Structure formats: C-alpha cells, structure tokens
Amino acid sequence: MIRESAPAKIILFGEHAVVHGQPAIALPFPALRAHVSISESATELEFRSVDGSLLAAPHLPKKSDPLLLQMLLTVLRRLRIVAPEISVLLYSEIPQACGFGSGAAIATALTRALARHAGRPISAAEVNDIVFETESIFHGTPSGIDNTVIVHERALCFTRGTDPLPVQIDQSFQLLVADSGDRCATHIPVSAVRERLQLHPEGTAVILEDIGAIVNKALRVLASGQPLALGTLMYKNHALLGKLGVSSPLLDRLVSAAGSAGAAGAKLSGAGRGGVVIALVKESGSADVALALQDAGAVQIWNTTIQATN
Ligand code: MEV
Q1: Measured from the CB, is residue 102 less than 6 Å from ligand 1?
Q2: Is 186 in the pocket of ligand 1 (CB under 6 A)?
Q3: Is the dihedral of CA 7, 8, 13, 19 positive or negative?
Q4: What percent of the chain has pLDDT over 70?
Q5: Atom of ligand 1 nearest to the CA of 144
Q6: How far apart are CA 62 and CA 5, in angstroms?
Q7: Where are the beta strands (DSSP E) in the chain?
C-alpha cells in the first residue's frame, strides 16, 4: 500500500492582498494532515473516505462529489494515468472551508500517492503546478500561496509570479489557532474583495498596499529575534482585513477576546468570513487566552509552536 500525506497551512500575514500581487507569509500547520493511501483493486477506480463512503469515481459521476471528482480527474490527466484499477482512500484531519487549505492538502497527498503508484518520479515543482490547477477548481482565482506552502512544507514568503522565499525566523514563538466554527468557501470572500476593488479601486488598492507593507515589516521582525513584536502588526492586519469586508462579528469577537486576555496579537487567518483566528501568546499566558477564545465562541483551539529556522 502506498501512503502519502500533506499538512494544513496557516497564513501569518497578507491573505487577500496576495491575490492582488502583494507578498504574504504562510506557515505549514503539521498538527493537521490529509492522508491518502492507494491499494490495488479488482474493480474500477474509486476514491473513498476511510468510513467507506464513496467520494468520487469516474464511472459513477452522479454519485461523486463534483469538486473531488474534478480534482481526481485533473490529477490523473496531469500524470497521464489512464483507468487505473485502484482504490484510493482519504483520511483528512483538516476541517474544510476554514482557512487551513484542506483542498490543497488533499490534492498534494493525492498527486504524490498516484505518482508513486504509477512509478513516476515527480518533483515538488510539478506537484505544486498540478495542485495549483486543482485549486483553480475550488477557488477560481487562487494566488498559489496555499499549494506552495503545503507542497514545500516550510515557512515562506510568497508573491504571485515569483519564486517563494524561505522566511528567516530567529526565535520560535507560540500561536493559538482557534476555529470559529463558521465555514465559508474561499471563493466567496475572494470574489467580494475583487468586487470591492472594481467598485472602489483607489481605496481598496491602498488597503492592499498597507497589508503588503505589514508583511514586509513582519519579515524584518521575524528575523530580529523579537517575535512578540509581531503582535501589533497582527492587530493592524486584522483591522485592514475588516475594512476589506472579509472579517465577521464572530471573528472580531475572537480577536478582541484574545487581546483582552493578554495575547500579543491576533487576526483572522485565511480567506475569512468564518474559519480560524490566530493569536500570538507568551507561554505563560496561553491558557488564559485559550479560555477567553473558548468563552468568545471558539469551537476548537490548537496550541502550536512555530520553530526558529536555522
Ligand atoms: C486563502 O488561504 C488565502 C487567500 O489569499 C486566497 C489566495 O491567496 O488564493 C484568501
């Protein structure tokens, strides 16, 4: 049996602005992973969840989840695999539509597993290219940041149309990742920002540029060994995302609850209108902030350490 997996991701700074050419910083979130395994089967190709339910099968299109069927067909076409007699099993720990890059993680694990099964060596760049194509099915106009950080599984600074740059992190720091429980498909806030840009080009462009400036400051702070100084930048980034119209009353409540409980910074992460909030905490104060997030409505909270790079 062939097994592959890929991590979730979080965006530290710069979501949405990155779609419009600004830089953004993304981190892998390996606490949550999508796992794919492949075994031989005597029947036609089927893509199932571990509980046995059918996710997608090219010979049963009506019984398939349309997006997962598209993903499967895209990966098979790109790998030039024709009518394989295999059973593909998916077990994903990553909640969907909440900013973790679930679709990109599934597509990454699927591409690697199918390539290995076909005995076809595949570079990270090619996996990234294939997963980007599948992302376009889900999101219409992705920037490419989600697939890139998930495929490379390292902290990076991403600007559309250029090679991703490794991010230097001089001192490790702690983040709480709080799930608001609200779900919103990525393409909805992404389209809303695009519409805003069309309706109010100048005002929106200023917001996007201000977010880009925050990203550049954050890169310097990350390299400075004073990670708690990221906090102010996180609050500013969240406020700008609110101005873009991609926050929500619940996300704002979570951010301010984290702040009142002593978080150095907090912001929504990912496309917004639901999904997760990240809060920068000191080891000593993390329990208070976690409790405050829970009281404010978070349905699940992960405590993660972002390690310094060498
Ligand atoms: C989604 O994780 C990040 C967005 O900036 C969309 C994208 O970059 O494709 C909202």
Answers
A1: no
A2: yes
A3: positive
A4: 100
A5: 9
A6: 28
A7: 2-13, 24-40, 46-49, 54-56, 86-92, 156-158, 165-166, 173-179, 265-269, 276-281, 300-306
- Quick check: CB of 275 below 6 Å from ligand 1? no
Q: How far is CA 205 from CA 40, 76, 214, 247, in A?
A: 52, 39, 14, 18
Indicate if ligand 1 lies below 6 Å from the C-beta of 135.
no
Burial of 168 (0-12, 13-18, 19+ CB in 10 A): middle
Query: 175 falls in which pLDDT band (50, 70, 90)?
Result: very high
Active site residues: 146
Is the model's pLDDT at 74 over the cut of 90? yes
How many CA atoms lie less than 13 Å away from 234 in the CB half-sphere?
27
State both tokens at 14: 């710069």
Place of tokens 């969240």: 238
Between the CA of 196 and the centroid of ligand 1 the distance, in Å, is 16
Q: What does the pLDDT look like over 218-267, one tens digit per residue? A: 999 999 999 999 999 999 999 999 999 999 999 999 999 999 999 999 99
pLDDT at 158: 98
* 18 Cβ closer than 6 Å to some ligand 1 atom: yes
Quote the ligand 1 centre to 271 CA distance (angstroms): 6
Quote the ligand 1 centre to 190 CA distance (angstroms).
Answer: 7
Residue 243 amino acid letter: K
Q: How many whole angstroms from 48 Cα to the centroid of ligand 1?
A: 27
- For residue 223, give the nearest of 163, 156, 170 by alpha carbon: 170
